[in-house]
């Protein structure tokens, strides 16, 4: 993308700073502060480096806890249900009686669910299923010659562990976003792990999450959170109390779902032998806006993302100083009035958030592509033209009436998306996440015969003669007799 060349300008009340950090010339990372007080100056750090440092800080502690939890079990069943209860008590401050949630508790949660909330969840499920149904990849084949066909089958992953975070909020939406595409893919066995609710004496998870599981028809649910949940999915766990059974949880083939830094690090640690969707970082929004955008809506959208977490990133790319000023004014008005004002203020004032002033729409687009946001809103005069030029984004939200929360809950799209710039090469969660393509090679005698000699020539060139001999053995008497091989090939009709 080259040098910024003075593209970042300071507005009168929205002083914006930016730090560009190049990775082999492939990407620029922008970081700056939303300034709530005129004249405030901050040192700006690379947000990605800060995240990496945080990961390093916690990594050692997590590894110790992880190893304590797992041990070196020869049977790969982890430390068992007893260890899980110990760690739930230590980290989530509640000791679940039933690590696997009884089916009756799941059903009961649905009966007590607020009708309005139930209707909203059911509508979200309906829309998500409609989109997922069209995402299912289709098998295909290619005929290369007579008797020469390569087919591709899409096969569902057999068993999947879906993690649903707790923490600062309740996420029944994450249940939907993970379970619906897995079900559409045809996954045979779905298990959900989510932290127990601290206000529940028996250590059951949040009732809205359980009710959502009931709506989706998922009855294998575990009151286990954090890194220990990832360990349970990866290694399985033996039962330790009668209600657990001999085996509490069987290992899974893939783990999906977002979580905090401990969950993300745990997924990374087990990724060598169990599939994961991604190692998710803090959530983020990028917005491309021109002079036609509504600054009040822009401010609301930035706040909406900042509400997630103090580390959430909210970045506005605009070539309009007037828009930047008005957004800043709206932030000063709106932030104190939202319920989680302190959290939002911390997020918007952090090094991961910015108002980036550019020299024009072209540069706004370049900057947004470099940032590769998890969520990218387009609020410009010709939104379609901008959408066509976006190369890197987890999901694109076109126009002022497609805000990110629409995707969080009810657009039909999936809200589990790549973070931390990984949208440069990664995609969001979908049906494809829970399937794997397998090629089926279908050659008959004539199909192989037509290229047997060429396969042998290729194999010899790589100094792998047995490869060629394997093929030739189907047509010639003695592929090891190199002195007569060419004549044998002619007699067999290979040449």
What features would you describe in this structure?
This protein is α/β, with parallel strands linked by helices. The chain has 3 domains: 154 residues, Rossmann fold, CATH 3.40.50; 208 residues, Nitrogenase molybdenum iron protein domain (Rossmann fold), CATH 3.40.50.1980; 48 residues, no CATH class. Helix content is 40%, strand content 15%. The strands form 4 sheets. The protein has a 5-stranded parallel sheet, sandwiched between helices. The chain has a 5-stranded parallel sheet with strand order 12-11-10-13-14, with helices on both faces. A 3-stranded antiparallel sheet has the order 1-2-15. β6 and β7 form a beta hairpin. α1 packs across α7 and α5 packs parallel to α6. The chain starts with 46 loop residues before the first helix and ends with a helix. The N terminus is likely disordered.
Topology:
Blueprint lengths: L46 H24 L9 H12 L11 H9 L3 H21 L4 E6 L2 E9 L2 E5 L8 H14 L3 E6 L12 H10 L4 E3 L2 H10 L1 E2 L8 E3 L4 E3 L4 H10 L4 E2 L7 E6 L5 H12 L6 E6 L2 H14 L6 H9 L4 E4 L3 H11 L3 E5 L3 H7 L5 E4 L5 H6 L25 E9 L1 H5 L2 H10 L3 H8 L12 H7 L4
Helix pairs in contact: 1-7, 1-8, 2-7, 3-6, 4-5, 4-6, 5-6, 7-8, 9-10, 9-11, 16-17
CATH architecture of the largest domain: 3-Layer(aba) Sandwich
Main sheet record? 5 strands, parallel
Into which percentage range does the β-strand content fall?
5-15%
Structural class designation:
alpha/beta
The rounded Rg comes to 27 Å
CATH topology of the largest domain: Rossmann fold
Which regions contain 5 or more consecutive residues with pLDDT less than 50?
1-63, 69-78
Task: Report the average pLDDT across residues.
Answer: 84
Q: What CATH first level of the largest domain would be assigned?
A: Alpha Beta
**Strand order in the sheet with the most strands:** 5-4-3-8-9
The named CATH superfamily of the largest domain: Nitrogenase molybdenum iron protein domain
Shape: globular
User: Percentage of helical residues?
Assistant: 40-55%
Overall tally of domains = 3
Count the DSSP helices: 18
What is the total tally of β strands?
15
Report the span from N to C terminus: 53 Å
